[in-house]
Specification:
- Two copies of one chain form a homodimer.
- Chain A is mostly helical and 205 residues long.
- Chain A folds into two domains: 51 residues, Arc Repressor Mutant, subunit A (Orthogonal Bundle), CATH 1.10.10.60; 140 residues, Tetracycline Repressor, domain 2 (Orthogonal Bundle), CATH 1.10.357.10.
- The first copy, chain A, is 64% helix and 0% strand.
- Chain A is built from eight helices and no strands.
- Chain A is elongated, with a radius of gyration of 20 Å.
- Chains A and B meet through helix 7 and helix 8 of A and helix 7 and helix 8 of B.
- The structure holds a DNA duplex (33 and 33 nucleotides).
Chain lengths: 205, 205
DNA sequence: TGTACATCAGTGAACGCGCGTTCACTGATGTAC
DNA sequence: TGTACATCAGTGAACGCGCGTTCACTGATGTAC
């Protein structure tokens, strides 16, 4: 608990965290600046000391999310080296782990309608994060004979799509779409089958 | 153009259509009953002659979406018969085609937070729609040796996840995520590789 | 160590707005005779 | 075909509410001397 009293001491970050909880709970359009302020124990007007307004607060939440996300993905990638396959699989797991551990950030990043190009800083960190997935895919696709190798961008788009789909449909309390399988298993097996289709893992594994 | 004058003539459906346009444009939480009424050329209060309120209107939009979706999926399934593979691939294409042709419906169905179990009728039509995908997956998985056959529910969850992911990330104007590939190609190749991984299409195709 | 003062992070009241919902109403439509 | 009347789909005013944002302000903090 930071300093108490008239001056909050750490209001900026407290607002971001309140926003994240609300975005997680109410969705990106349901989030309100006033409620975030209230949660941080402060008047709505105080928000304007730290942010330009509602949008700016969401953008900062997304930025912090991409920062964490990029770190996790990079760490996962490193942990699998020097094996391209191990690196790739680790990044896939990291994707889902991030979405589950930081659902508010995830929503702010991918569902809030905030443009990734809103600021140069946001664009940079977003590209760092998504770049790791593409790098892992590129590494791995070197093991595929060139004539049957799909473009690395397509490869990583497939994996991104499946990961995002699993998150949205099965890893959240989506309405009536309770998965009969744990999302982790679903993604792991899905990626496994996909990689087998590329000839990257032995067919009898 | 329906009858003009004091009585609208077809207000119920006009409201659903206005709602769909707004849901598509502003997202599920951004949709307002008042604006839908205005678009239909009517006072907000008039909505209550036809619906129980905001939620009920969204639910009806979702219901109509599932109806169309189920029809499309069933038609696609039939068009591929008697080949299990052709049926399966056709349903995959139908999924994306639906999402692109009826984006408002798609959002109302899968992103509005409306529970699929809101009414018995909604649950029924939703299950009819999603059941087609599962049926296509079950048919197809009969061609896999039982010992390496994943459960059909998992199979169809993978495909659903990838389809949904492609829709959300690449088939809509998502922020900064312009795909370098047409979504249709992305889904087609993704599913192709996945099926190859299951040994369902020849590895050199 | 003490004082004067600038800086700064908050308050609280006010704004105009659009929301979902209710209510008594009224004008148009359709039916019985 | 004409009239009386019931039904019904709309109006328009009103409600209480929470929103994002602005503004002049004030109390706390930190710095210069």
């Amino acid at each position: 608990m930071p300093k108490r009293g008239y001056h909050h001491g750490n209001l900026r970050q407290a607002l971001v965290e309140a926003a994240l909880e609300l975005i997680e709970k109410r969705g990106p359009t349901g989030f309100t600046l006033s409620e975030a302020a209230k949660r941080a124990g402060v008047t709505p007007a105080a928000v304007y000391r730290h942010f330009d307004g509602r949008e700016d607060l969401i953008a900062e939440a997304a930025r912090q999310g991409f920062e964490i996300f990029a770190d996790l993905m990079e760490h996962a990638y490193q942990s699998g080296q020097p094996s391209a396959l191990a690196s790739f699989e680790a990044t896939g797991r990291a994707y889902l782990a991030f979405a589950r551990k930081y659902p508010g950030h995830y929503v702010a990043m991918f569902e809030s309608g905030i443009s990734i190009n809103r600021t140069a800083e946001l664009a940079m960190v977003a590209n760092r994060a998504l770049g790791v997935l593409e790098k892992a895919a590129t590494d791995l696709s070197r093991h595929i004979p060139p004539d049957k190798r799909p473009p690395a961008a397509m490869f990583s788009a497939h994996i991104w799509a499946m990961s995002h789909g699993v998150v949205e449909l099965f890893a959240r309390g989506a309405p009536g779409t309770k998965s009969p399988f744990p999302p982790e298993d679903l993604l792991e097996t899905g990626i496994g089958i996909y990689l087998r289709g590329l000839g990257l893992v032995p067919p009898d594994e």
